[in-house]
Design brief:
The chain has about 400 residues and is of the alpha+beta class. The protein contains 5 helices and 19 strands. It has one domain: Jelly Rolls.
């Protein structure tokens, strides 16, 4: 049976079409809305559960310990200062400008020991204060470097003041110092007249190294503390006995005077002014903290010694006034000359008799242990000065 079209059905279809269209649109919108919700939900999930790179902020700085930092700094400085400085070949025209370190106080030793030291007096030079005392009868209140009153070893030293007469009366006219030194060391060594003041005591020098000190320390050492600055000479003399054969020369410095003679030959004039007028070879210079300029070092003449064969030796030191320093070293033939870290010759210190540990302690402020490894001379009676010309 066929389908019959009727106006009523056509009307029903026309009324149903908008409803179906509205339902279709609603479905599409619903689907799009759910898709959008799904996208948003997915984004939120990803953002929530995706691990983020973690960053760590540094904590507050640790409090600075200034005491620890100071100790570290001091250790670094001490390590730098204690590191051995390389020695170097010295040209004869060069002067070392390295200043010596300040000298620390030396602890006292047993006062009954042969040599007891408490330090060295150098006001204004950055050194400690004190002197030498003990059973040896060392100089009272003066620098220990001028010697001991023990006559068992060393060259016998006499102190002369050319500014006054023997009875301590000052001279009306003091002779020029260069003339005094030249006359003293020309011909027979000694003062041309014993009318000049002489020290009441004799000191015996085993070595001759004088750091920069006030020249009035010489008078104090020889128990003449009233001695005014300048115009003095300390003359050491004796018979030395070599411990072995050898050819040597002295190397030294003096501000102002360091002059050495063996028998009748003048073998070294290391004075800064060259009082003897002899031609000299310069070897560098040493700088002490109390001095504003280097003190020149000079080579002496070569000489030969025989084991056990005595030689008369004389050493003259002195000063025109102010700061005094001097040194005497021994160089064996064939040994290269070098200067140490402080400009002092890197050679054995000329030594007569064994040095005590207290004496070595004093010298170690300036010298390495190698300075005590040279030949040790002995003395024999009969070389002391018996008079002047």
């Amino acid at each position: 049976m066929g389908t019959h079209w009727s106006p009523q059905k056509m009307t029903e279809n026309k009324e149903a079409a908008p409803k179906r269209l509205l339902k279709g649109r609603f479905l599409v919108i619903s689907i799009l809305f759910h898709v959008l919700l799904a996208v948003v939900a997915t984004y939120l999930v990803v953002q929530t559960f995706t691990p983020r790179a973690q960053t760590f902020k540094p904590g507050p700085p640790a409090p600075r310990n200034k005491e620890v930092e100071h100790k570290i700094t001091m250790v670094k400085k001490q390590n730098a200062m204690s590191a051995p400085m390389p020695t170097k070949r010295i040209a004869t025209t060069g002067l070392s400008k390295v200043a010596l370190p300040e000298m620390p106080d030396i602890a006292s030793v047993d006062p009954t020991a042969p040599t007891s030291m408490t330090g060295m007096g150098t006001p204004g030079a950055g050194f400690g204060t004190g002197g030498m005392s003990g059973g040896s009868g060392a100089s009272d209140g003066g620098s220990p470097f001028f010697g001991l009153r023990d006559s068992g070893a060393g060259l016998e030293g006499t102190f002369y003041d050319f500014k006054r007469m023997a009875k301590t009366r000052p001279l009306d006219k003091v002779p020029p110092y260069d003339q005094v030194v030249n006359r003293f060391t020309t011909g027979g060594w000694g003062p041309k007249s014993f009318k000049n003041y002489q020290s009441p005591v004799k000191l015996y020098g085993k070595t001759f190294l004088f750091p920069a000190i006030h020249d009035t320390e010489a008078g104090k050492a020889f128990q003449a503390p009233e001695t005014a600055p300048g115009g003095w000479i300390a003359h050491y003399v004796g018979m030395i006995v070599p411990p072995e054969d050898g050819t040597y020369r002295f190397v030294g410095f003096g501000d102002n005077v360091m002059i050495v003679k063996l028998d009748t030959a003048l073998v070294l004039d290391a004075s800064d002014h060259g009082y003897t007028k002899r031609r000299r070879e310069e070897a560098g210079g040493v700088q002490f903290p109390a001095k504003g300029s280097p003190t020149p070092i000079f080579f002496g003449s070569w000489f030969s010694l025989k084991k056990g064969e005595p030689k008369r030796m004389e050493v003259v030191v002195g000063d025109e006034g102010g700061i005094f320093c001097a040194g005497l070293f021994l160089q064996a033939q064939g040994v290269k000359y070098e200067q140490g870290a402080h400009g002092i010759p890197n050679l054995p210190l000329f030594t007569i008799g064994r040095l005590s540990e207290a004496q070595k302690t004093a010298f170690r402020q300036y010298l390495p242990d190698s300075a005590f490894t040279g030949p040790v001379f002995s003395t024999r009676p009969g070389g002391a000065a018996s008079g002047g010309l």
